[in-house]
Write a structure and sequence with these properties.
mainly alpha, 2 domains, two-stranded antiparallel sheet, 7 helices, 2 strands, globular
């Protein structure tokens, strides 16, 4: 659990560093980017290794209904990530689509994974995303959202999201993680 917790904390600190300590981040200059990239990659390795090796104390198990809700929330998360790249209509409605995607993904996974390791991983990343939105809102304010899009862009984004979601679901099933039940 220590490795998993350290990984979530390292992820959070690496991503929040410029918000929490902007002058320290600015002092790093160009060297700051690769340093933060290494920290993020290290945090992912730590989270994966820590999650796989964590002892599991279960509080609830997955149900078919919760698995369905999780799948919809993960599909929404994938769509929000794709939309943030494609600048679709939803990016004109949701201020932070990538962080909202993380929140959707984390909530979905907490619904179907009622164990301590999942609380640390998905709950920790959910807390990071919530804190990020709050800090960004306080520091940057809330500029008007204005997005110009086309029907073709909307369709491409939706199709891409479904295809990526399918790939993620297939990878989960291949790795032995249940997807649909």
């Amino acid at each position: 659990m220590v490795l998993l917790t350290a990984g979530v904390l390292l992820w959070s600190v690496a991503h929040l560093f410029k918000r929490i300590a902007p002058s320290a981040r600015a002092n790093l200059g160009a060297a700051g980017r690769p340093l933060m990239a290494v920290a993020v990659l290290a945090s992912i390795v730590m989270m994966v290794m820590g999650y796989q090796s964590a002892p599991m104390q279960f509080f609830w198990g997955r149900t078919v209904a919760m698995a369905g809700i999780n799948n919809l929330l993960v599909l929404l998360a994938v769509y929000l990530m794709a939309a943030s790249v494609g600048k679709t209509w939803i990016t004109g409605k949701v201020r932070h689509p990538q962080l909202t995607a993380v929140k959707s993904w984390a909530v979905g996974h907490l619904l179907v994974n009622g164990d301590t390791a999942s609380f640390i991983l998905f709950g920790g990343l959910l807390a990071w995303a919530v804190i990020s939105v709050i800090l960004i809102g306080k520091q940057d304010g809330k500029p008007a959202l204005n997005v110009q899009t086309t029907a073709l862009r909307e369709v491409i984004t939706a199709v891409a999201a479904v295809l990526v979601y399918g790939g993620i679901a297939h990878a989960h099933a291949y790795l032995g993680y249940p997807v649909f039940g």
